[in-house]
């Protein structure tokens, strides 16, 4: 079964989904069991360092990785209390369960994801 480009089929995706607004984020977080949302900015060095880690997690875990550009979606970022980038928000079964600021190491992110996928 193929997934669509918006990542709303319910399957795990092996690459990050770029969110284009609040409705899209809601669709993705309700369609998938576990979603890790990365609030990022293109100009942010730690965000760029985190990219390969998130791509690896998208490919090797059951979680869907979603990315929200805070410059394009300031209101959406503000609604989650994002004050710095990167900020990572974890959703499980459509509900926000974790929020962390800063570039976390891969093993810590993997532990956060696995805590909600078992």
Automatic annotation (TrEMBL):
GO cellular component: cytoplasm
Thioredoxin domain ranges (all copies): 1-118
Pfam (any one): Thioredoxin
Keywords, in A-Z order: Disulfide bond, Electron transport, Redox-active center, Transport
Gene Ontology molecular functions: protein-disulfide reductase activity
Database matches in InterPro entries: Thioredoxin, Thioredoxin-like_sf, Thioredoxin_CS, Thioredoxin_domain
PROSITE patterns: THIOREDOXIN_1, THIOREDOXIN_2
Gene3D superfamilies hit by this protein: Glutaredoxin
Keyword Ion transport carried by entry: no
Any coiled-coil regions, as ranges: none
Name of the protein this chain belongs to: Thioredoxin
Gene that produces this protein: trxA
């Amino acid at each position: 079964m193929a997934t669509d480009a918006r990542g709303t089929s319910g399957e795990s995706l092996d690459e990050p989904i770029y969110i284009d607004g609040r409705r899209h984020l809601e669709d993705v977080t309700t369609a998938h069991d576990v979603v890790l949302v990365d609030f990022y900015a293109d100009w942010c060095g730690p965000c760029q360092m985190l990219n390969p880690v998130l791509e690896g997690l998208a490919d090797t875990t059951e979680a869907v990785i979603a990315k929200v550009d805070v410059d394009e979606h300031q209101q959406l970022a503000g609604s989650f209390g994002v004050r710095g980038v990167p900020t990572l928000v974890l959703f499980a079964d459509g509900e926000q369960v974790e929020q962390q600021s800063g570039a976390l190491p891969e093993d810590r992110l993997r532990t956060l994801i696995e805590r909600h996928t078992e």
